[in-house]
Give the backbone structure.
Amino acid sequence: MQTVFLSKEYCIWLLIKNLSTKVDTLSYKTVSANKATVQKEWIVIDATNQVVGRLCARIAMILRGKHKTSYTPHVDCGDNVIVINADKVRFTGNKWAGKEYVRHTGYPGGQRIVTASVLMQKNPIAVVEKAVKGMLPKNRLGAELYRNLHVYSGSEHPHQAQEPKEINLNAIR
């Protein structure tokens, strides 16, 4: 009978090969959400005396669904968000006069610039909407997520039938 000597590398390879076959029997699988399995809720957020950027960053996170354990990047798994009292938001520093919203009419020399204070007087809803839209993805999914945002300047909204729940933004991280 001959004695067979196995190299150290060959023994390590055999060990790894035997371990890799056992990895297929995991007790858990990564669950990927889809349109049928997503559970969407209606949430009310009061924007009274909230800083625009911080408020809208949390709103965008809720719209995206990143606060849920079933978050999937390519699926609309976020909640429907109702923002009330959008006319009572605030900016820090000198942003009322310094922040500019730029648009273009499409004609030569058609660039139009509006400051935050003028936009707030004309359309207070647009301040929150523009901030949230800028924080969402720039693709079809972002457009679909943006449709889940409902902003109102007063404290009343027409979505009582959906039974929205009011949340504290500081509780969501």
